[in-house]
Task: inverse folding
């Protein structure tokens, strides 16, 4: 991402403020950008246009996490599953930091007579469990479920998902840091931030932030003057094919 200077029109249609190079190698010119990337990636993208906010964005730390979803027959789980799961305090120093009883929390997560449990691994300073291979991670989760919930049965299946550098860390002073970042980015017309690194990491938080950022970007674009239509050579037909 770079400011769009002279010759920008050669990158694509439009007369926008920013030139974006996409993953397929193509380039596009735009008037506004919503950066919903991780903070460190947004920092990299903003380095050319806003170096101070970019440095602050890059300072937000992330840890790698993983989830292991295990399915069991209901008769294999003695626990009554009343509630939504359990959270493990850091002081316990266990590899699984929480387990959600997904089929109790949401309808349709498991067929009749079955349950689905999702365990979370990886937290600041204890990321090793999130980096195990599938077989070893499943073994670790089964051992935790056996000790905490008394589940000794072989799961019907296990599904592993990983998020390298996927969980932003809100350190002491995070509110002030975000306030400084947002003030700096506000000086860059047409650039908005969204994602879990700022005001909440939950899905609902990210949806709210994404919608608000999109609204601000649209408001910015609507406020721009319309591009003048360049004069057309006399030998170019009208857009509808009918000469004036």
Result:
């Amino acid at each position: 991402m770079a400011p769009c200077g002279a010759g920008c029109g050669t990158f694509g249609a439009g007369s926008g403020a920013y030139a974006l190079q996409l993953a397929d190698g193509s380039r596009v010119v735009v008037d506004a950008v919503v950066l919903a990337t991780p903070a460190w990636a947004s920092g990299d993208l903003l380095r050319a246009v806003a170096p101070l906010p970019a440095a602050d964005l890059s300072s937000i730390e992330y840890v790698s996490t993983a989830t292991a979803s295990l399915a069991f027959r209901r008769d294999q789980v003695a626990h009554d599953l009343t509630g939504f799961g359990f959270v493990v305090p850091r002081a316990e120093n266990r590899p699984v930091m929480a387990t959600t009883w997904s089929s109790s929390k949401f309808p349709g997560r498991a067929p009749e007579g079955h349950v689905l449990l999702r365990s979370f691994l990886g937290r600041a300073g204890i990321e090793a469990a999130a980096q195990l291979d599938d077989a070893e991670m499943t073994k670790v989760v089964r051992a935790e479920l056996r000790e905490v919930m008394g589940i000794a049965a072989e799961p019907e299946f296990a599904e592993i998902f990983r998020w390298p550098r996927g969980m932003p860390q809100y350190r002491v002073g995070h509110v002030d840091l975000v306030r400084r970042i947002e003030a700096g980015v506000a000086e860059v017309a047409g650039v908005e931030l969204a994602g879990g690194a700022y005001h909440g990491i939950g899905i609902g938080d990210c949806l709210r932030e994404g919608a608000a950022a999109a609204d601000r970007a649209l408001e910015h674009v609507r406020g721009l003057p319309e591009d003048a239509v360049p004069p057309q050579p006399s030998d170019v037909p009208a857009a509808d094919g009918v000469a004036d």
Summary: The two ends are 41 Å apart (CA to CA).
